[in-house]
Amino acid sequence: MSLSHVWVQNGPIKTNNKISLGWQVSSDLYGDNKTHLYASWTSDNFHNTGCYNLRCPGFVHTNKRTYLGAPMTNISSYGGTTFDFVTYIYMDPKTKNWWIQIDGTDLGYYPAKLFSNLTSADKVGWGGRTLTPHGSLSPQMGSGHFPDKNLYDACYFRTMTFENSSRIRFGPERYQTEKYIDKPKCYDLTYYGNAYEDAPGHLLYMLEFGGPGGKCDDKLVHF
């Protein structure tokens, strides 16, 4: 399995409440090697609760056009056309339900009652993960190439923001951030902050991540 996701979480690691949203390649889950839209949830760090997509009760689907687990048709190629899409996880301030959104359209929500400690998030993150049988070669992450400061060669997140309690969006400042890389020989992550402009006068909070994989076992990079 190889995936890219944004997530929100709260609580200590043993009882971690978490929602993730992104894309995923997993032959075990989908029976193919295509890229699929995915989301996941847990209220105890996956010890007894949570799952991918609709593989367990929880997510309330409201969209008639697409669904969790749907194959994604626009796929980027290294050195070729690059595609991206907008992912957004947000909490309804009245119901406390957590909604997930793709390209400005709601897919559905995770009811507040699923969670033991997610009335707010104490951490948000962006990054990637791979999973492989122990002792076998780890797959590529993203494009299969390391970040190289040549934007869009590696997998990326751009226009990264989070919301405060007043629903005002901010880009992550460096003092608020930390990064975690399991195996730097296999994968890497570079955060550029607001060093680039997406359009004149509009700063672009951006990171690149990924790599070729190899002898890594189960590894992840996140920010």
What does this structure look like?
The chain has 223 residues and is mainly β. The chain has a seven-stranded antiparallel β-sheet with strand order 4-3-2-1-9-16-13, with no helix packed on it. It has a four-stranded antiparallel β-sheet with strand order 5-8-7-6, with no helix packed on it. Strands 10-15-14 form a three-stranded antiparallel β-sheet, with no helix packed on it. The relative contact order is 0.17. It is 2% helix and 39% strand. It has two domains: 1-121, no CATH class; 134-223, no CATH class.
Keywords:
2 domains; globular; 223 residues; 1 helix; seven-stranded antiparallel β-sheet; 16 strands; four-stranded antiparallel β-sheet; 39% strand; mainly beta
Low-confidence stretches: none
Strand content: 35-45%
Helix content: under 10%
Q: Could you give a short account of the major beta sheet?
A: 7 strands, antiparallel
How many runs of DSSP E, i.e. beta strands? 16
- Report strand order across the widest sheet: 4-3-2-1-9-16-13
Would you tell me the structural class of the helices and strands? Answer: mainly beta
* Elements, N to C (H/E): EEHEEEEEEEEEEEEEE
The whole-number mean of residue pLDDT values reads 90
Over the alpha carbons, how many angstroms does the gyration radius reach? 17 Å
**How many alpha or pi helices?**
1
Oligomer: single chain
Q: What is the count of structural domains?
A: 2
Shape: globular
Distance between the termini: 19 Å
Pfam families: Neprosin (PF03080)
Organism: Vigna angularis var. angularis
Protein name: Neprosin PEP catalytic domain-containing protein
